[in-house]
């Protein structure tokens, strides 16, 4: 249609602007989500590391990831690498997905580079149609506007979500959510990994209640009752399940199964559990 800015055209504009060193205002393309029909449960792990951010920078092969998925009953997994450059994260994810295209879904890792801007690398990865989202981790880059805003603009333009580990920085999460209402932001760990501070989690629940573009990732949440509270306040459609795996303790399969049982053990309806365990991320990523 005349005047319509398509996702591909939008990404091309970002790529050109990045090459010129300027990111102008972009119009977000309107992309419809494919709904999963009510019925059988399709489990999708939305948070899986090809390379972790731990002290050892632990890596897991796509073969190991799929073995864990098969052992636990996970249909598909979102995968990404961190503790590396954006370019290397793209290559690692591409190799993994080439081996298991029907099981693994790649996200590109957004990490600033001292020698060159990486926004063009991210835009080109998204334009290829294989990468479905962006991972951001505050443990490796600042969430200040002069660093992260171009990435959030690009995500909104491309119609892809950003999975953001804010490491508990509520003010930064609030600024991003309010400044980019057309960008879907998935807050990892409902605010902070393994947090035992109910007040902090409540503040992130308040943010999600205020900003409809904010979703909450349940991986690494130890105050499990807060997941039920989130469903009561926000509805099950705003929660996204993931393992933040693979993790070797007590073993790879048991770790993933425990995260799965965490949701299945809640006093929620089958429909609510199905939303959290797969339908919501499927809608966001437009999976068929």
Mean pLDDT: 89
Label the overall shape. Answer: globular
> How many strands?
8
Instruction: Give the DSSP E fraction (strand runs of 2 or more residues).
Output: 5-15%
Q: Can you name the CATH architecture?
A: Alpha-Beta Barrel
Helices and strands, in N-to-C order?
A: HEHEHEHEHEHEHEHEHH
Helix fraction by DSSP (H/I, runs of at least 4): 40-55%
Question: Order of strands side by side in the largest beta sheet?
Answer: 1-2-3-4-5-6-7-8
The profile of the biggest β sheet is: 8 strands, parallel
CATH superfamily membership: Metal-dependent hydrolases
Task: Please tally the helical runs, counting DSSP H or I stretches of 4 or more residues.
Answer: 10
CATH level 1 name: Alpha Beta
Based on CA atoms alone, the radius of gyration comes out at 18 Å
Distance between the termini: 25 Å
Low-confidence stretches: 1-5, 16-39
Task: Give the count of structural domains.
Answer: 1
CATH topology label: TIM Barrel
Question: What is the SS-derived class?
Answer: alpha/beta
Describe the structure.
The chain is α/β, with parallel strands linked by helices. It has one domain (41-285): Alpha-Beta Barrel (TIM Barrel), CATH 3.20.20.140. The protein is 43% helix and 13% strand. It is built from ten helices and eight strands. Strands 1-2-3-4-5-6-7-8 form an eight-stranded parallel sheet. Helix 6 packs parallel to helix 7. The longest helix has 16 residues, at 270-285. The chain starts with 6 loop residues before the first helix and ends with a helix.
């Amino acid at each position: 249609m005349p005047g319509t800015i398509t996702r591909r055209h939008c990404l091309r504009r970002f790529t050109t602007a990045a090459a010129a060193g300027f990111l102008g205002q972009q119009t977000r393309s309107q992309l419809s989500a494919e709904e999963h029909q009510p019925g059988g449960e399709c489990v999708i792990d939305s948070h899986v590391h090809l390379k972790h951010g731990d002290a050892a920078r632990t890596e897991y092969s796509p073969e190991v990831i799929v073995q864990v998925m098969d052992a636990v009953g996970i249909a598909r997994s979102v995968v990404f690498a961190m503790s590396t450059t954006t370019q290397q994260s793209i290559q690692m994810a591409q190799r993994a997905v080439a081996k298991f295209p029907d099981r693994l879904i790649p996200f590109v890792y957004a990490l600033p580079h001292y020698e060159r801007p990486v926004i063009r690398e991210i835009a080109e990865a998204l334009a290829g149609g294989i990468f479905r989202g962006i991972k951001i981790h505050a443990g490796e880059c600042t969430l200040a506007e002069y660093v992260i805003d171009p990435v959030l603009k690009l995500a909104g333009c491309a119609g892809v979500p950003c999975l953001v580990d804010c490491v508990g920085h509520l003010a930064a999460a609030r600024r991003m959510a309010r400044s980019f209402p057309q960008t879907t932001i998935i807050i990892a760990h409902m605010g902070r990994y393994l947090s035992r501070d109910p007040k902090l989690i409540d503040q992130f629940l308040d943010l999600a209640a205020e900003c409809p573009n904010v979703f909450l990732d349940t991986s690494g949440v130890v105050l499990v009752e807060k997941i039920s509270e989130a469903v009561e306040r926000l509805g099950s459609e705003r929660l996204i399940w993931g393992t933040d795996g693979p993790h070797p303790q007590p073993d790879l399969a048991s770790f993933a199964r425990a995260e799965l049982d965490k949701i299945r053990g809640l006093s929620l309806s089958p429909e609510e559990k199905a939303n959290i365990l797969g339908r919501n991320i499927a809608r966001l990523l437009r999976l068929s």
